[in-house]
Write a structure and sequence with these properties.
Elements lengths: L1 E4 L14 E5 L17 H10 L18 H18 L5 E5 L7 H10 L4 E10 L5 H9 L4 E9 L6 H6 L6 H9 L5 E9 L7 H11 L6 H12 L1 H9 L19 E4 L13 H18 L5 H16 L4 H5 L1 H15 L9 H4 L2 H9 L1
Parallel strand pairs: 1-2, 2-3, 3-4, 4-5, 5-6, 6-7
Helix pairs in contact: 2-3, 7-10, 8-9, 10-11
This protein binds iron/sulfur cluster.
């Protein structure tokens, strides 16, 4: 997939014969997730301006501020839209990423301009932090007949208060937005995605349980419509069911418009990796997540199981490279410093002990 970032220099000739495009408009975002920075989030840029640089030893994250260049974005948006109107026939997947696309005026202008036409071959994918207003998702649903499919990838690291800590958004619409999206038109799909870090891994069991529970809201009528779509078009069936699973084809047996969840194992910044945890905490996590897995095994589909087992393998066996391992003391200092600085700009009620288990908080205290 070719990435086109409109907030960076763009060479439109690079798109020749491209069939899958990831399009980034800008870094407008109202959240400041633990692992993100100002290059993706204006909320992070504001936090750093208000509270100062973090001055970490092993990562540039929060040691600099990415400047927003509206003129460059506008110039690139005109060039890209012009290219799109002439060449869209060759594109089968357009994945919009952010920042938070739903908050970007450039995203909505692009959608407004391109939706004057239809794209029966195009699977439109939008990655969002789910904090938008319901009217925005309605606007997309209203355009669904212009596309082969619309898939929303909703980023959520925990289905509880921990998400407000991990993603510093304090958006209470998230859960209702997810349910609302599950009631969308027959060619609109939803998948939840989390990033597994030293912080979010403590909520992984709840994330899995939440995905299972959400199936209640995945409209039954979508079972038939998805089945029809798959029989009518092998490419959509293949794409919709494999895009989260390393490109490997799996059996299209999952009902409803809620797609299998995806879990990204964070490797950068390394000081926020799960591998920072001492072995006894990793064993604790392994047993905790494995218990959730076994209790839900009959309700999990093959892609869910693969995703969870991949995570369990990582917790049990993954190691830092020798280079990173030798930096462990500096990374521990960064983790501690980050945790202290980060709490200065999030809701003061979100203390470590209100969000994380004692075993993790106690370990952080030892650093
Ligand atoms: S929602 Fe996405 S862009 Fe915004 S801070 Fe989080 S990871 Fe970064």
């Amino acid at each position: 997939m070719k990435t086109v970032a409109l907030n960076k220099e763009l060479n439109i000739d690079d798109l020749k014969n491209t069939t899958e495009i990831e399009l980034i408009f800008d870094n407008i975002c109202d959240m400041s997730c633990t692992y993100c920075d100002s290059s993706k989030s204006t909320a992070w840029a504001l936090n750093i301006r208000l509270n100062g640089f973090y001055n970490l030893e092993t990562s540039n994250l929060h040691n600099e501020i990415f400047e927003f260049n509206g003129e460059l974005i506008q110039k690139n948006l005109v060039n890209f839209t012009t290219w799109w109107l002439k060449n869209n026939n060759q594109v089968t997947v357009l994945k919009i990423n952010g920042g938070e696309p739903m908050l970007s005026q450039y995203f909505w202008r692009f959608i407004h301009n391109i939706s004057k036409f239809s794209y029966p071959q195009l699977n439109l994918i939008i990655v969002t932090g789910l904090s938008y207003s319901p009217s925005q998702i309605k606007r997309l649903h209203d355009l669904s007949d212009k596309f082969k499919s619309i898939q929303i990838i909703g980023s959520i690291d925990a289905p509880n208060g921990a998400n407000n800590f991990l993603r510093d958004g304090r958006h209470f619409k998230i859960m209702s937005n997810i349910k609302h999206m599950l009631g969308g038109p027959t060619n609109c799909f939803v998948a939840l995605q989390n990033v597994l870090s030293v912080f979010s891994i403590w909520s992984y069991g709840s994330f899995i349980e939440y995905n299972i529970k959400l199936r209640e809201y995945s409209s039954k009528s979508k079972l038939d419509s998805l089945d029809v779509l798959m029989r009518g078009s092998s490419s959509l069936g293949s794409y919709a069911l494999t895009s989260f699973n390393s490109g490997k084809r799996i059996d299209p047996i999952i009902p409803g418009n809620l797609r299998p969840f995806n879990s990204i194992i964070l490797t950068s910044p390394a000081f926020q990796s799960i591998l920072m945890l001492p072995i006894q905490l990793r064993e604790f996590l392994y047993e905790d997540i494995f218990a959730v897995y076994t209790s839900l095994e009959n309700e999990l589909f093959t892609p869910d199981k693969k995703t969870i087992i991949n995570c369990l393998d990582y917790i049990q066996s993954a190691k830092f490279s020798d280079n990173l391992e030798s930096s462990r003391p500096s990374m521990e200092r960064d983790l501690k410093k980050f945790t202290v600085e980060y709490q200065k700009h999030i809701d003061s009620s979100l203390t470590l002990s209100s969000v994380f288990p004692k075993i993790f908080v106690d370990w952080l205290d030892t650093i």
